Amino acid sequence: MNIKDIIKGLQGFSLPLLTRQEMIKSKINRNLYLTALGFSSCVNQYLTKGKVSPQQYMLIYCVEGLGFIDLGNSKYEQSQDEFIIFPEGISHLFFTSFTDPWRIYWVGFNGELADDLYKRGSSNSGVMACKVSYDENRLTVFNRIYRVLSQSYTSDDLELANFQLTYFITSLIYDNGIKSSSSDEDPINASVIL
To answer: In 144-162, which positions are buried (b, 16+ CB within 10 angstroms) versus exposed (e)?
Structure first.
């Protein structure tokens, strides 16, 4: 994905190849690192088509509305509180509904842990598509990553962004486990034996 491919209603960017190469060499960043980042405003209708770089997985998280994703042999309808991850090298087409436009956040990512994270929930079709609970913290983290990397690509900024990326992705993949383990009871009080 390239900034030239961003269609009206979409905002985003791809990290420069040199920056990606530096992250691959970094002991801190190489486990999981960002390659592209963006979001849609939900206002405009758009259609985007492309071939994902052979060096990134793509995650699309829908927080509002309805959209459609065509991955060649597989077609997906994506609605509010759903995400999809598809592996590197897949041609794709995605577009919003004309009657219920979606608002999406997307990230391209890779790294030594990318394939293992992806395999945690991918189906036989090779795509991970899941319903999740809405979590405002997730969007706060995404916006923090976007804001930091919109300003610079210093080593510190990239490290911060990639640590935040890990939270963003795992909060989606492990959402069901997080929900089932959370309760209103304070875990410290619950573990104290009197």
So the answer is: ebbebbeeeeeeeebeebb
With 0-12 / 13-18 / 19 or more C-beta atoms within 10 angstroms meaning exposed / middle / buried, residue 78 is: buried
14 to each of 17, 20, 37, 53, how far by Cα in Å?
A: 9, 10, 6, 11
Percent of the chain at pLDDT exceeding 70? 75
Tokens of 135: 């979590």
Dmax over Cα atoms in the chain, in whole Å?
Answer: 63
Domain boundaries, the chain: 3-191
Query: Over 80: is that where the pLDDT of 58 sits?
Result: yes
* Chain segment 148-181, per-residue pLDDT in tens: 999 999 999 999 999 999 999 999 999 875 544 4
Considering only the top CATH level, what class is 3-191? mainly beta
pTM value? 0.82
Backbone angles phi, psi at 36, to 5 degrees: -155, 160
Neighbouring residues of 3: CB distance < 8 A, sequence distance ≥ 6: 12, 13, 14
- Sign for the CA dihedral angle at 116, 122, 127, 131 comes to negative
pLDDT in tens, 21-54: 999 999 999 999 999 999 986 645 555 555 555 6
For the chain, give me the number of helices (H) and strands (E)? 6, 10
